Amino acid sequence: MKLLTAKEVSEVLQVTPARVYELARGRAIPTVRIGERQVRFDENALREWIARGGELVASEAEVKGQDSLRSHFELSKTNAQ
Q: How does DSSP classify residue 30?
């Protein structure tokens, strides 16, 4: 899984990074949350979203991917303490 920044996504979609964040806040684009304020975009989920014409569908694979990433960061945080 490759995570993209808003700037990288903006280049793919040919919009501004501000528009990417707006889409993310409105939950119109698939996101991966890292903590409360950080957001990244899974490259594969983004490509699938584009292929569906921008229609967001919460598939089991996307949910599992986000949950495993969240677990990874929580585990890393716990081990660091």
A: -
